[in-house]
């Protein structure tokens, strides 16, 4: 996704109106944001990092693509999450995942074109914590599917 300067300014203004003071973006191979700084709002970006775990831990709000790994990492870190759907994907699993996690009350989702509106209207107090995973249940399920529980 290419981030236009005007769009970044709009998002910054909305976030600032909600009390946020810093916007950090991972831009990958995208265009470097070229926009004026909004007073009281720090804009920072980087292309890639080996891990964004530290950024997630420091965040008050995460806006991410709607990939399953990204969603789970942020939700397990107990951070408020807005996911942006890639509408160009075939078999749009991102949309299915985002719709379900939203229906369960764990996140907000948006397309690129309505991200500003989603940020304006979101009420983080309505979000429910994502339940902690139970690794034993998953292991037991795999064992039963692979027939390992027959040997116990």
Feature tags:
152 residues; alpha/beta; Rossmann fold; UDP-N-acetylglucosamine transferase subunit ALG13; EC 2.4.1.141; glycosyltransferase; transferase
Architecture blueprint of SSEs:
Blueprint: H1 5-17, E1 22-26, E2 42-46, H2 53-58, E3 62-65, H3 68-76, E4 81-84, H4 93-103, E5 108-110, H5 115-121, H6 135-146
Parallel strand pairs: 1-2, 3-4, 4-5
Brief summary:
The chain is α/β, with parallel strands linked by helices and 152 residues long.
Residue share in helix:
25-40%
- Main structural class: alpha/beta
Q: If classified by CATH, what would the architecture of the largest domain be?
A: 3-Layer(aba) Sandwich
- In the sheet with the most strands, the strands line up as 3-4-5
CATH fold description of the largest domain = Rossmann fold
Q: The biggest beta sheet, please?
A: 3 strands, parallel
Radius of gyration from the alpha-carbon trace, in angstroms: 18 Å
The CATH superfamily of the largest domain appears as Glycogen Phosphorylase B
Compute the average pLDDT.
86
Tell me what portion of residues adopts beta-strand conformation.
Answer: 5-15%
